[in-house]
Specification:
Blueprint: H1 6-10, H2 18-32, H3 42-59, H4 62-71, H5 89-98, H6 104-111, E1 128-134, H7 136-141, E2 143-154, E3 166-168, E4 177-184, E5 187-194, E6 203-205, E7 217-228, E8 237-240, E9 256-262, E10 269-271, E11 274-282, H8 283-288, E12 290-296, E13 299-305, E14 314-317, E15 333-340, H9 347-358, H10 365-370
Helix pairs in contact: 2-3
Length: 371
């Protein structure tokens, strides 16, 4: 065996962590995988791919790495299953081509013995989405709302184990792992992985839980209190950590996302933190001015209409809009006044309007045009 610097091969320092070694391996394996090589460099890529796999098979194993650091390549010059001799790189490449490996993480785990991706790996539960509808008034003040949803939870009868009685797995003798020796053209290769019988748990169930039928999970209807903050807008989502589906093998639960929808209001239209409303006023109020009472989202307020107000003009009522989420600030209420023209007039009203018609405006629009 020629002397090789495995640290130099992977481009890592001698004190590199296993995670750093894994990262370096993935980068190089992605670059030099033979299936990605140019036609004229196929042999060069295959040799390089074998070289980085050789390096990671030693540095990725704590025992082999310690032997390598102490004795160098001579630690693996002998035969047997304890050293590097016997690792079948052609098997890795053929499995990758056939799709047996999902990605380079799987190759890495295969090289390291498969322990990090065994069936007993902790898996985070799925996130859930729940949609709920509230009124504009509730969005203004904020509200605590109770929602109900069906979700998977660990069976309380068996504490999520699927059974109440277990015995040590006789296949792996309770260790959770099994060694497998494979004969290859390069010699014998020994690999350690999760026990396929107990899935790395080290024990086998002797009965089946009557509540969950051995599935470890049951679907329950659960009530959850949701605090909806003042000022929330439609399509905003609230995250309730850990209220999603439970994880596998005691992994963490997912999260619950509550998406808010705000119902259309009879009078108000919302534009982020501002509210819009249209208020009808009479011709006399517009011409002479007045103080009117205007509805707000949380009550009523006075609005002064100056004399000579034109129809569709917009008045701003400061701080009468929606609150900003998690801020002590408010938007404005925009009031559009619409001057109503009566469709039916009394005789007295008709006479007064005729008198008004005889008055010539001092600043007539037509006078400006025709001089």
């Amino acid at each position: 065996m020629t002397n090789k610097d495995y640290y130099e091969t992977l481009g890592v320092e001698r004190n590199a962590t296993k995670e750093e070694i894994k990262k370096a391996f993935k980068k190089l394996a992605l670059k030099y995988h033979p299936d990605r090589s140019p036609e004229d460099k196929r042999k060069e890529y295959e040799d390089k791919f074998k070289e980085i796999n050789e390096a990671v098979s030693v540095l990725g194993d704590d025992k082999k790495r310690q032997q390598y650091d102490q004795y160098g390549n001579s630690a693996f010059s002998g035969g047997g299953t304890g050293g590097f001799q016997g690792f079948d790189f052609s098997d890795i490449m053929s499995q990758f081509r056939s799709g047996s490996f999902g990605d380079f993480d799987d190759i890495f785990d295969h090289v390291f013995g498969g322990s990090s991706r065994g069936n007993s790996r902790l898996r985070r539960g799925s996130d859930l989405l729940y949609e709920t509808e509230i009124t504009l008034e509730e969005a203004y003040s904020g509200i605590n709302k109770t929602i109900q949803l069906n979700k998977l939870e660990h069976c309380k009868e068996c504490n999520g184990k699927g059974a109440n009685k277990f015995e040590s797995c006789h296949h792996c003798h309770g260790s959770g792992y099994m060694k497998k020796t494979q004969r290859t053209p390069f010699g014998l290769f020994q690999q350690t992985g999760p026990c396929p019988y107990c899935h790395g748990k080290g024990e086998l169930p002797q009965d089946s839980c009557s509540e969950c039928a051995g599935e470890r999970l049951v679907r329950k209807r659960k009530k959850i209190e949701v605090s909806i903050p003042a000022g929330i807008e439609s399509s905003m989502r609230l995250r309730l950590k850990g209220e999603g589906e439970v994880g596998e093998n005691n992994g963490p639960s997912g999260d619950l996302y509550v998406q808010i929808s705000i119902m259309a209001h009879k009078f108000f239209e919302r534009e982020r933190e501002n509210l819009h409303i249209t208020i009808p006023i009479s011709f006399s109020q517009a011409a002479l001015g007045d103080e009117i009472e205007v509805p707000t989202i949380n009550g009523k307020a006075k609005l002064k209409i100056p004399a000579g107000t034109q129809t569709e003009i917009v008045f701003r009522m400061r701080d009468k809009g929606m609150p900003l989420v998690n801020h002590d600030m408010y938007g404005d209420q925009m009031v559009t006044v619409h001057v109503e023209i009566p469709q039916k007039l009394t005789k007295k009203q008709i006479e007064l309007i005729k008198q008004l018609k005889e008055e010539k405006p001092s600043n007539s629009f037509l006078k400006k045009i025709f001089g």
